[in-house]
């Protein structure tokens, strides 16, 4: 539309901005969502992230025979855990895994971390305490969190090979909130 402001004509093209932003968001989302072919591994590690989709992905990987152990240590960060479910993420994840038919003996869980960096720092000791020597780990995160998780774990856990198995998650790439989250991931990727 056209409007006159202080003697000038301004043409608004908001109908062109949204498709361009959605396209840019899709490109960024695909960059962040790195995905490998699942392999038989020492454990499946679920990253915290205020979503149950990574838990469902871990169940799928477990039932497909990719590992006999599922581990996690997130209590929840700024948005997850008790703020979302009324209990820490590790408790909610355990509950969902058991409801999904995963035996308790296959679950390695402790409430230790509230961010990706801390989760990476606790990985080896968490698994070793449960008798698992971490050499190859299936890393399961939300798709937009996968690249940062991978890069962080790779830096913190030298000698461990990580296989990226992001959860499947439908996101509205036209949403301003999602675009902010994607940009935040890129910023944290640079920092981490």
Q: What's the topology here?
A:
Layout: E1 2-5, E2 8-11, H1 14-32, E3 43-46, H2 53-63, E4 70-74, H3 82-85, H4 89-99, E5 107-113, H5 116-129, E6 136-140, H6 146-156, E7 161-164, H7 176-191
What class would the helix/strand composition place it in? Answer: alpha/beta
What's the N-to-C terminus distance? 44 Å
Which sequence of strands runs across the widest sheet? 5-4-3-6-7
Helices and strands, in order, run as EEHEHEHHEHEHEH
Number of beta strands: 7
Oligomer: single chain
> What does the average pLDDT come to?
88
Number of helices: 7
Q: Which parts are unreliable, with pLDDT below 50 for 5 consecutive residues or more? A: 1-16
Shape: globular
Q: Radius of gyration over alpha carbons?
A: 20 Å
Biggest sheet record: 5 strands, parallel
Q: Helical residue percent? A: 40-55%
Relative strand content: 15-25%
């Amino acid at each position: 539309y056209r409007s006159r402001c202080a003697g000038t004509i301004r043409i608004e093209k908001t109908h062109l901005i949204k498709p361009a932003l959605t396209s840019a968001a899709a490109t960024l989302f695909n960059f962040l969502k790195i995905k490998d072919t699942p392999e038989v591994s020492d454990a499946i590690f679920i990253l915290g992230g205020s979503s149950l989709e990574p838990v469902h992905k871990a169940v799928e990987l477990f039932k497909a025979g990719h590992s006999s152990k599922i581990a996690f240590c997130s209590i929840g960060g700024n948005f997850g855990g008790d703020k979302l479910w009324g209990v820490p993420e590790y408790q909610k994840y355990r509950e969902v895994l058991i409801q999904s038919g995963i035996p308790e003996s296959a679950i390695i869980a402790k409430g230790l971390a509230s961010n990706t960096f801390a989760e990476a720092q606790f990985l080896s000791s968490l698994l070793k305490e449960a008798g698992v020597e971490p050499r190859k780990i299936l890393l399961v995160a939300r798709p937009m969190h996968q690249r940062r998780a991978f890069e962080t774990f790779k830096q913190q856990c030298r000698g461990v090979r990580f296989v990226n198995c992001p959860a499947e998650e439908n996101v509205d790439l036209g949403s301003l909130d999602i675009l902010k989250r994607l940009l935040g991931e890129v910023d944290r990727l640079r920092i981490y």
